[in-house]
Amino acid sequence: MINKNCPLISIIIPIYNVEKFLPKCLDSIINQTFKDTEVILVNDGSKDSSGKIAESFASLNKNFILINKKNGGLSEARNKGLEIARGKYISFVDSDDYLHPQFLEKLLNLIISHNADISCCNFFFYFPKTKIKVSYPFRGKTSVHFSSHALKKLISGTTLQSFVWNKLYKKSLFIDNNIKFQNICFEDLAIVPQLFYRSDKIAITSKPLYYYTQRKGSTLRSIKTDEIEDYIKSFGSIRNFLENERKYSLYEKSIDSYTKKIKLMTNLYIFNLHLKTFNFKNLAKNIKNSSKSIKFFLEEDYQPTTGMPNIPFPLFEPRKEQNSKM
């Protein structure tokens, strides 16, 4: 039975150094057509004026809750929000993004009308300098899927993606299954498949209702060696999870499709990492090691571990060449 004093939806927003984007994000929360919410702002050690902006919004809006903490990373901030969330449903919003006014209303209606555990929407890439909005092209059709079919589509990564933010979840998925965000980069890729697996039904709308901001600090431009390793670890975590559930064979075809994507993206990340430092020593070795690590997580006799797996073939961090030229 739902406590009438509790909000129906808890929105968790980890806050970092995003002073230029945060007001637009929080205004989009206030302007939601669905109002029965609590907004949990987790200020994770911001060093610009983001903390003051969050404090101002919290002082003016009774349903805003501000938590100030030392920097511990995105996963820790989301877990902190989950600890105090009172809503029956959970939504995650990144503090440099913003929402369509009907984001919550439409996703909640999808869950209720189809008795689903998760609802998902399409999204826009938003470019703040030009104000251009580009809809993600590989959108899934408005539909409802049982868990196994939705998870296959999610792992394949075309019409469904493992972003945590363009979705609404029943909080019980996290609580009943003790699912928490792991302290790695690309943590979405590790946790969203588990949430899909634990669900009965997932409802999808093709309408883009989330605005994903593209800015200079994007992953491709700023990625580091340990973050590329985390990307590969997140791939290994899917194998771990499915093996521990004894369901890996059911999703092997989807894993094969995902493997092509992760190999392509990993090579792209590695190349950009070396290009950024103008140091191409160990480029070939890093590409080889990443390929060997991915292959390791695909072996037939792979032995799953508990928790996040270790990467078997580490990468080499390229140091910036002092006197290099283009």
Structural features, described:
- With 326 residues, the protein is an alpha/beta fold.
- The chain has 2 domains: 9-213, Alpha-Beta Complex (Spore Coat Polysaccharide Biosynthesis Protein SpsA, Chain A); 219-296, no CATH class.
- Helices cover 41% and strands 19% of the residues.
- The chain has 11 helices and 10 strands.
- It has helices spanning 22-30, 50-60, 74-84, 103-114, 147-156, 172-176, 187-198, 219-222, 225-244, 252-277, 283-296, and strands at 9-15, 37-44, 64-69, 89-92, 98-99, 118-127, 132-135, 143-146, 167-170, 201-213.
- Strands 1, 2, 3, 4, 5, 6, 7, 8, 9 and 10 form a 10-stranded mixed beta sheet that branches.
- β1, α1 (22-30) and β2 form a beta-alpha-beta unit.
- α5 (147-156) runs antiparallel to α7 (187-198), α5 (147-156) packs parallel to α10 and α7 packs parallel to α9.
- The longest helix has 26 residues, at 252-277.
- It is globular.
- It starts with 8 loop residues before the first strand and ends in a 30-residue tail after the last helix.
- The mean pLDDT is 93.
